[in-house]
Specification:
Layout (H helix, E strand, L loop, with lengths): L10 E5 L2 H12 L7 E5 L6 H11 L14 E5 L2 H4 L5 E7 L5 H14 L2 E7 L5 H4 L3 E7 L6 E7 L7 H7 L14
Parallel strand pairs: 2-5, 2-6, 4-5
Antiparallel strand pairs: 1-7, 3-4, 6-7
The chain binds adenosine-5'-diphosphate (ADP) and magnesium ion.
């Protein structure tokens, strides 16, 4: 989100390695609740799957988390870290073609409702109006050097009450954005 009228609660972060992106995502995951949707936006190679790996680790998922491309939606069983916050399943999805969007939404929604899940949807495009209103939108962009990524987190309606906590937990990766007066 750019321009002067940025919604409240946006967190601007920066990471300098894949490990740092995973650590940020793992920290974020501890704020998740069953039924949440997190949208990961960014170009190919931005770091969406890397982010998903860290998020999964934060929910105690064991075993490798790979790109769900061509499988559309892949469920993972959470470990104790997820179960402690009531999240049993992580649903990892990839909307790599727009005509698959509804399919992904339908598949993910079933799990969200029936299995105390959190959905993490990789989205290669700029905007996701269908899913975006209530989701936490995480936008990842390349930074100035090869391993730098700028990560913008925009909390949707269901995240509004968690926005303060979100900013506090992600403070280690906070990035100053000119003109916003933050952090
Ligand atoms: N700070 C960083 N955060 C995430 N990935 C990074 C970072 N720096 C370099 N990378 C590299 O960028 C690539 C991101 O790939 P991936 O996570 O599969 O992206 P996407 O799912 O968006 O296509 C990986 O090769 C990763 O090692
Ligand atoms: Mg990916």
């Amino acid at each position: 989100v750019t321009g002067g009228d940025r919604p409240a609660g946006i967190v601007d972060a920066v990471t300098s390695s894949p490990a740092a992106t995973r650590a940020l995502a793992a920290e974020l995951a501890t704020l998740a609740r069953p039924g949440d949707t997190v949208l990961l936006a960014g170009d190919l190679g931005a770091g969406k799957t890397t982010f998903a790996q860290g998020f999964a680790a934060g929910l105690g998922v064991e075993g490798p988390v790979t790109s769900p491309t061509f499988t559309l939606v892949r469920p993972y069983r959470c470990g104790p870290a997820g179960l402690d916050i009531g999240v049993r399943t992580l649903v990892h999805a990839d909307v790599y073609r727009l005509d698959h969007l509804q399919e992904v939404v339908d598949l993910a929604l079933v799990e969200l409702v029936e299995d105390a899940a959190v959905a993490l949807v990789e989205w290669g495009d700029v905007a996701a109006p269908v899913l975006g209103a209530d989701a936490l939108v995480v936008r990842i962009e390349r930074g100035e050097d090869d391993d730098e990524r700028r990560i913008e987190l925009v909390p949707g309606a269901s995240w509004a009450g968690r926005a303060g906590e979100l900013a506090r937990r992600l403070a280690p990766w906070a990035r100053a954005v000119p003109g916003t007066g933050r952090p």
